[in-house]
Amino acid sequence: MVREFTARQLADYLETAEPRPFLLDVREPWEFETVKLPNSTLIPMGQIPTAINELDPDQVIVVICHHGVRSRSVAHYLDRNEFSNLINLSGGIDAWARDIDPSMPVY
C-alpha cells in the first residue's frame, strides 16, 4: 500500500516514528547533492530494479524526489513487488524546502 504524505505530515511522522523509516531518494546524483533530507539514501529511479534486493520489503520506506512524481512511480513499483509499507512524499523535496525548512535550496 502506498500512502501519500504532505511535507508537514511527513515532518510530524518523522518526529515520533520508531523504528525510523528508510528515506529513499530516487532523484539523480546532482539533485541529491543540491539538497537532501538528512539520513536519506540515494538510489536513482533508473537503478531501483537492480537495487530492489538491497531494500527491506517490511520496513517503512519513504520515497522522495523533486516534486513527488518519480517517487510516486517508484513507490507503486515497489508496491507491485511486495513491499508493504510505503509513503510517497507528495510535493517532494521542493515542498519540504518550502513548507518545512526554508533554509534549503530550491531548484
Protein described:
It contains 5 helices and 5 strands. It has a single domain, classed as Rhodanese-like domain (Oxidized Rhodanese, domain 1), CATH 3.40.250. With 107 residues, the chain is α/β, with parallel strands linked by helices. It is globular. The termini are far apart. Strands 1-5-4-2-3 form a 5-stranded parallel sheet. Strand 4 (61-64), helix 4 (69-80) and strand 5 (86-89) form a beta-alpha-beta unit.
Name of the CATH class: Alpha Beta
Number of strands: 5
Weakly predicted, low-confidence segments? none
- Note the main sheet: 5 strands, parallel
State Rg: 13 Å
Structural domain count: 1
State the helix count: 5
Q: What is the N-to-C order of secondary-structure elements (H for helix, E for strand)?
A: EHEHEHEHEH
Topology:
Elements: E1 2-5, H1 7-16, E2 22-25, H2 29-34, E3 40-42, H3 48-51, E4 61-64, H4 69-80, E5 86-89, H5 92-99
Parallel strand pairs: 1-5, 2-3, 2-4, 4-5
Which short descriptors sum up this protein?
107 residues, Oxidized Rhodanese, domain 1, 5-stranded parallel β-sheet, 37% helix, 18% strand, globular
